[in-house]
Amino acid sequence: xxxxxxxxxxxxxxxxxxxxxxxxxxxxxxxxxxxxxxxxxxxxxxxxxxxxxxxxxxxxxxxxxxxxxxxxxxxxxxxxxxxxxxxxxxxxxxxxxxxxxxxxxxxxxxxxxx
Length: 114
Prior knowledge:
Blueprint: H1 10-18, H2 22-26, E1 35-37, E2 42-44, H3 46-55, E3 64-66, H4 77-83, E4 96-98, E5 103-105, H5 107-113
Antiparallel strand pairs: 1-2, 1-3, 4-5
Domain B box-type: 16-55, 81-114
InterPro entries: TRIM45/56/19-like (IPR047153), Znf_B-box (IPR000315)
Protein name: B box-type domain-containing protein
């Protein structure tokens, strides 16, 4: 079963490593995102958020969330994959649920232990 490492700076590290500015990424540049807009479902760096806010009236309704509101950001694909990895069988994804043990399992765990 996957576990999430807890540390005092975990939220900061997740932002820095997992979220890239959507606009910069389209131009083959990886810049850390500092904002997420829920209306257009995109991430923005400090520079791109300025041009984004100029053309969107929805911005006045607080649709963009900064790093201080990271809990409102969607789960990144990298983090989703990490959370779905089996702790025992590192190459396997958690795809089954064992009702007897009330835990998520990978296929190999089901065959061997459940």
